[in-house]
Amino acid sequence: MAATYSNRLAVLDMTRATAIFLAITSHLFLQYNVWWTMDLDNYRIFKMFTRTATPMFIILFGMMLELVYIKYTQNSGLWVASRRLWKRSLMCYFCFVLIALAALLNSHLDMQQFLHSLIFLDKARYGEILKYYVFALLLAPALIYCRLRYGLKSLLLMLALIWLYDCLLAVPLESVFGIHYLSSLLLGVGNIHGPSILHGITWVLAGMIMGRLLVVDSGSSTYRQYYWAYVGLMLLSVMVILNVVYQHNWLYLVDNITTSHRDIGRDFRRNNMPPYYAYGLLSCSFWLGLYWLLERHCPNALNKFVTLFGIESLFAYSSGNIMINLVPSIAEDTYFGNRLLYSVLCMLLLYLCCWGWHLLKRKGYLKFL
């Protein structure tokens, strides 16, 4: 492809920064009760954007497996790469614990909820994507092995098996395991948690396919195979979305992606339904395409000042959610404009903290991390 490796990294960093910005914004709006004081139309519009954050996190994770860890495994061996991935999993778990601890200290969680969250029996306030990373990083060596050993066909087979399971076993398993947090988190049983670890692998595999397109010669047969696999996934996603619209209407689609109707039983995300995953793949492709065009036509636009959240992603996401859990609540009658102002000030504070963290790393004070 025409883009250099540094160009590609800038696009990925900007997409990751966007995901963090949208996720933190959504959490700030929850903390300051902005969502529920919006009119319904504005809620739908803004929520359709913030709903793209989780898919971006997971698809970018899959892309980095292909861009970084496949080559690292080929050079250093699967065991060495596995240890590196598992170390990263521990770091994500440590950050998850800190977020949960902040929620406990500010009485957002009681002690029982806090302890349950540590062993994945309950949710922790605002740290759910780190929980996904903990499991995804543990599973990543198996995905890398399959990709290296069997190539594209292994990724497509796993995609097919995930949704075959969803069609045949997800509902019957409710009577076997019951509907509780752990079974919902791991297998998507019931409507307590979404995306589940299993269903979310859909995005990881799609990300690996997308990442492969960035590292192989565009004239090779390998490129053509992955290109048509990606095109097939995109077309399938479009068909899933249009099927929902055809059977119902656009508003039904939007309401079940954003949960604007407040009916969890119909929520595409918590029920791990195909339209949510289709929307996630399409929306992430939109953001990646947008930033690729920006980088191509304005080469210096995606500098470290605008991609900072993406460069320091783990610190930005973790410290941002710790801050949100620690800030005091506001009065219920607070003016809507003030709620927005508090959210903006918190975001600016987070940016300054990330910049300070980045400078400390550049000066070598954080080599132990």
Descriptive key words:
369 residues, mainly alpha, 16 helices, globular
Structure write-up:
The protein is mostly helical and 369 residues long. It is 74% helix and 0% strand. It is built from 16 helices and no strands. Helix 3 (53-76) crosses helix 13, helix 4 (78-105) packs antiparallel against helix 6 (128-150) and helix 10 packs across helix 11. The longest helix has 28 residues, at 78-105. The two termini are 33 Å apart. The relative contact order is 0.15. The model has no long low-confidence stretch (mean pLDDT 88).
Q: In whole angstroms, how far apart are the ends?
A: 33 Å
Taking Cα atoms only, what radius of gyration do you get, to the nearest Å? 20 Å
List the helices and strands in order.
Answer: HHHHHHHHHHHHHHHH
- How is the biggest beta sheet arranged? none
Number of DSSP helical runs? 16
Helix content: over 70%
Would you identify the regions where 5 or more consecutive residues have pLDDT less than 50? none
Instruction: Report the strand count.
Output: 0
Strand proportion, as a percent range, falls in: under 5%
Structural class of the helix and strand makeup?
mainly alpha
Coarse morphology: globular
Oligomeric state of shown chains: single chain
Overall pLDDT level? 88
